[in-house]
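Let's practice the habit of predicting before peeking. Look at the sequence and jot down your guess about where helices and strands might fall. Then scroll down.
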Amino acid sequence: MVDVNEEGFFEHPEQWTREIASQIAADDGIDELTPQHWQVIDFMRKEYFAKGTGPTVRVLGKTSGVTVKDLYLLFPKGPAKMAARIAGIPKPKGCI
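Done guessing? Here is the structure:
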């Protein structure tokens, strides 16, 4: 059992596993996490642990190796917010 807040974001990112990520993605309508999904998820986690917050969509598009257009195809309900939930990190600053 993992601790999440009322929006479904992890309270303790260290509780995250790749299996949990796959389940969250499935619950959000993503049937399978592709290598490109994992690239974004792993980048989100790395940024969070380095900087204390997840990156915004703009930062993701410039630094993750995935274009903003592709981010919206991968995470259609809002790339930064959706990817952060799947990555098991708190909601990035600036996300509503």
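How did you do? The first helix runs from residue 18 to 27.
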